[in-house]
Amino acid sequence: MSTPRAGTAPAWSNWGRSALVHPAERVSPTTTDQVVAIVRRAAEQRRRVKAVGAGHSFTGIAVATDILIEPDGLAGVLAVDGNLVTLGAGTRLWQLPDLLAPLGLAMQNLGDIDRQTIAGAISTGTHGTGARFGGISTQVRGLVLVTGDGTVLRVSASENADLLPAVALGLGALGVITEVTIECVPAFVLGAIERPEPFDAVVDAFEHRAASVDHFEFLWFPHTRTVLTKNNTRLPADSPRAPLGPVRRWFDDRVMSNRVFGLTCVVGAVAPRLVPGINRLATRLTGNREFTDVSTSVFTTQRSVRFRELEYSIPLEQVPDALRALRSLIDSRGWRISFPVEVRAAAHDDLWLSTATGRASGYIAVHRYFREEPTEYFRAADALFREFEGRPHWGKIHFQDAESLSMVYPRFGEFVQLRDRLDPERLFANEYLDTVLGR
Ligand SMILES: Cc1cc2nc3c(=O)[nH]c(=O)nc-3n(C[C@H](O)[C@H](O)[C@H](O)COP(=O)(O)OP(=O)(O)OC[C@H]3O[C@@H](n4cnc5c(N)ncnc54)[C@H](O)[C@@H]3O)c2cc1C
Questions:
Q1: How many Å apart are CA 314 and CA 361, to the nearest integer?
Q2: Which residues contact 261 (CB under 8 A, 6 or more apart)?
Q3: pLDDT tens per residue, range 327-349
Q4: What is the pTM of this model?
């Protein structure tokens, strides 16, 4: 837990309840000019300032002890130029379907949920799955950023283009983003097939499975030999749709995936010996359905059972070995893990601090119910994934520092130099950034 500090403004905590802070001041700017004034005042008074998103990072990356900039005043569509849509930085991903549908557009890919802000999502490298698709930051074509001395830095194909691969995934360390231009795609629907399948067969064929469907992922409940696969295929917008009925959707997503699952987590926390049986039951009762719906309704789901998460990207071809090693680790330590392990894929990209920079990537995420102590499990998983040249998700728990991270990011040094240039006084720093980037 990040150390709370006694400020006068209302407290802020993240979704995973792993960070709590009492900032000195909370401000809600509505324009870039107002952000400039806030940053200049902070610089003059030698104070720190930080923009937060929706607080959905599990790390302390968004912790703002001094001046906290709220996201909500900077939201909505600001401009449209063909497929390029400029959004206020605080726009929530759940607002996008309604904003983009009248334009006939959609986000190319999304992660599991839509509660994040666009600036928060890109700042930590939020990703979904799909061997041919990158994370959300790869869809960024422009940004407006207020840097450490209050300068407005515009980055796009025609202005400061060389900085785009750094600022599109900047950890909140380079400035306050006020606008983000995203390249959208024509609206589409997704055909979803979800099935329980044998662990060994799916894990052995992971690369092939990821290559043979647009968006492939699976969940593995530890202590079982079954995985629940999700196979999503992109279809034209006018394809016939067969969405889940409201009752089925409510039952699957609200009742089974959240209420019943939440109850099993509570039971698992007080009686861990029951977890293997509960997990086996879960793989029998869920994850067997087919439907076709608009892309956002298929990509994202609701998560009301609180958890903590660690996720690593590793080279795609190493996923089977890493998963088997993880399974052996869990078995050998005798832990009882009620939350599933999630396995996804992404295309390589060229963003300096992207977990997929320079290599086709597999993602393995481990979770723990928020009332259970995650540290022993997460530390061991962290050590294991590092053996596979792992790169941790910036918004999820990990145990790395600037020294170890500089070994797995070829352009780490350039990013730090850019930070020195854009934020020499470390206005935007916090404890997390001090750890992962240095002071
Ligand atoms: C239930 C759940 C499910 C998730 N699923 C996924 C998933 O499927 N895939 C995935 O990759 N991740 C996932 N995540 C992680 C999540 O997407 C990231 O942590 C994301 O950064 C959260 O966005 P946010 O808006 O909450 O940002 P915050 O966590 O509030 O902030 C993240 C960073 O963005 C910075 N930031 C925010 N706004 C600005 C701004 N205007 N200017 C500059 N910096 C800014 C903050 O300072 C901080 O550094 C999940 C998290 C949860 C809790």
A1: 6
A2: 282, 305
A3: 999 999 999 898 899 999 999 99
A4: 0.94
